[in-house]
Amino acid sequence: MLPMLIRRSRQAVAAGMLLASIAPAYAFNLGDLQNQLGGVLQQASPGTSQQAAPSNSVGGASGSTAAVAALSSGEVGQGLKAALSRGVDTAVSTLGRANGFYGSPKWRIPLPPALQKTTSLMRMAGMGSQADALDLAINRAAEAAVPQAKDMLVNAVKTMSIADAKGILTGGNEAATAYFRRKTEAPLTQKFLPIVRQATAQVGLAQTYDQYAGKAAQFGLVSADEANINTYVTQQALDRLYQAIGEEEQAIRTDPVGTGSALIGKVFGALKGG
């Protein structure tokens, strides 16, 4: 209970600082709004981040272990690569299009928590259009960035070793996500950042947020990964991209025959003892 109270207190202070930083340009009673902010935050739940689906154990039964062992290295490698390539194609085509993020309640990137807490008060102060513009910009930026990831993700699949393939096959529903993160997250971060930066540069609130958040982070009021709007959006976009790939992989594990691929059906069917 105490950690939650501390976190909410920090969020209240951070949100108040942000509101104060953008207030001078507008004529309204800051004291009244901050008092209302306190009441809002008492009822608001803490900001949440996108969570990966829990890992499920697979391939544990003796029958499935024997079936996997009976597969050749070539079958494992080719089957796993085919499945992950399918996952990459589906994830990129789902997210990397108009409204792939913005138009989806599931994938939409929210404003940073400190901004979320002030949105209703900004609207009361006649500043709602700025919040809406930033909300749209960060999601459009993610939609533009995701297609740029496809070549790198596909290359990670193509260069996968047999050891990697076997580890992913028997490693559970998060094994592929962990592999893609390890191979591509750092370079994709650098690839996404300029695209995101170009989109947010058009919105004045983004610059105001960065000025405030950088200072607030020094006092622990804003987490390091939320201290810069471009870094925040890039990480949120990558998290959702990897999650989408992981969900497609999980669907294949659940119903490998349904993919229509004999090879995928054979390889992942072995995990079920088939």
Please describe what this structure looks like.
Mean pLDDT is 80; it is low at 2-6 and 23-62. By secondary structure, this protein is mainly α. Helix 1 (2-22) packs across helix 10 (204-218) and helix 4 (73-95) packs across helix 8. The chain is 69% helix and 0% strand. The protein has one domain (2-26, 59-272). The chain is built from twelve helices and no strands.
SSE diagram, text form:
Blueprint: H1 2-22, H2 30-43, H3 62-69, H4 73-95, H5 113-124, H6 128-145, H7 150-158, H8 162-170, H9 175-200, H10 204-218, H11 229-254, H12 262-269
Brief summary of the model shown:
By secondary structure, the chain is an all-alpha fold.
Features:
mainly alpha, 69% helix, elongated, disordered N terminus
Beta-strand level of the residues, as a percent range?
under 5%
Class of secondary structure makeup: mainly alpha
Oligomer: single chain
Low-confidence segments: 2-6, 23-62
Number of strands: 0
> How much helix is in the residues?
55-70%
Radius of gyration: 22 Å
Structural shape: elongated
**Distance from first to last alpha carbon:** 48 Å
**Mean pLDDT over the full residue set:** 80
Number of domains: 1
What is the string of helix and strand elements? HHHHHHHHHHHH
Q: Determine the number of helices (DSSP H or I, runs of at least 4 residues).
A: 12
The description of the largest β-sheet is: none
